[in-house]
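Key result, reporting period 2: structure in, sequence out.
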């Protein structure tokens, strides 16, 4: 290979500052140095043609490689200059459609805000919890359905996705032999098929207050206050005895139907009441398993945020909350935020 000729080409194209100058120089170089080589090839004796042909091709290919490299460098510079020239800060901007906070976040923040004012410590907690925190510490016996592998997402023999935020509360209250006010919140998981009213993932708030001599009256004051704060002072509340493994007594709390003011309609199935949350006095076994020996009572309530959102804003499909549909978001923005 003629190194001198190639170096000459390399040195000369360094001075080419535009695509056109580079092309012009390459054409001149080709005419002056490459074409004569091909002319020489034509007249060579046949036995010398093969080697000389290879030699000419090597030079031609090397020149082409150097040329293309330089061409891409020049184009890069030219394009960046073009972009700078085309950028005009006076151009009109197009209208960006801005969304807003999710309706779920809005309600979650309202509820958390209410308990913050009552000096509860706010803890999101981990979504992966131990079976001990999710069930064993909460007096959930071996036959309870949430222990079933079909209903719960287990990770291994000791860990699982929490089925309720009470798992986080159980972890926090362990060994707390002093007054403790804690709210845990966030995603919980159950192995449900998604439909209008069910989702495999939903959002909960769990509230526990441990202190000596707490009564149902304390519980009722806090829960009634929350429900009036969310749904308005005019709503009525009703406490029905129920069963949860971690509270005794346990209550299902209903509110008077916001749609018919308690008169009876399709939403409340003509009962005038709508089930809204679960609450109760902590079961003595829960306090015992949390190693709490100096305090004899605790009150608790668990809130499904999606349920509150759906009732407050009249949604019939839980999936509307998650689907991120822009029309839905704009309705939230215009009417709620
Ligand atoms: Zn009703």
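The corresponding designed sequence is given below.
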């Amino acid at each position: 290979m003629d190194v001198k000729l190639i170096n000459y080409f390399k040195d000369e194209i360094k001075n080419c500052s535009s695509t056109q100058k580079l092309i012009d120089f390459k054409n001149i170089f080709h005419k002056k140095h490459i074409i004569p080589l091909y002319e020489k090839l034509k007249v060579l004796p046949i036995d010398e043609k093969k080697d000389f042909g290879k030699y000419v091709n090597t030079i031609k290919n090397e020149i082409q490689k150097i040329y293309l490299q330089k061409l891409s460098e020049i184009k890069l510079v030219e394009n960046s200059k073009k972009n700078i020239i085309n950028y005009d800060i006076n151009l009109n901007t197009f209208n960006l459609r801005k969304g807003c906070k999710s309706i779920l976040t809005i309600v979650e923040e309202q509820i958390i805000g209410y308990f913050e004012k009552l000096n509860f410590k706010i803890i999101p907690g981990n979504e992966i919890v131990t079976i001990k925190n999710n069930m064993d510490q909460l007096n959930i016996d071996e036959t309870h359905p949430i222990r079933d592998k079909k209903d719960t997402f287990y990770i291994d023999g000791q860990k699982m996705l929490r089925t309720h935020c009470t798992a986080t509360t159980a972890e926090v209250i362990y060994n707390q032999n002093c007054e403790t006010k804690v709210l845990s919140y966030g995603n919980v998981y159950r192995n449900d098929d998604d439909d209008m009213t069910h989702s495999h993932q939903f959002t909960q708030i769990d509230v526990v207050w441990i202190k000596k001599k707490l009564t149902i009256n304390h519980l009722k004051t806090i829960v009634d206050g929350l429900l009036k704060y969310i749904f308005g002072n005019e709503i009525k509340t009703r406490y029905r005895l129920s069963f949860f493994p971690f509270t005794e007594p346990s209550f299902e709390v209903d509110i008077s139907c916001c749609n018919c003011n308690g008169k009876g309609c399709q939403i409340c199935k003509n009962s005038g009441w709508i089930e809204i949350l679960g609450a109760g006095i902590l079961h003595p076994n829960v306090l015992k398993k949390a190693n709490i020996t100096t305090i004899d009572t605790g009150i608790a309530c668990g809130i499904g945020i999606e349920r509150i959102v759906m009732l407050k804003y009249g949604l019939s499909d839980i999936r509307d909350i998650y689907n991120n549909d822009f029309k839905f978001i704009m309705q939230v923005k215009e009417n709620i935020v």
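The chain has a mean pLDDT of 90. The beta strands are 121-123, 128-130, 159-161, 180-189, 201-210, 237-244, 247-256, 273-282, 298-304. This case is discussed further under Risks and Mitigation.
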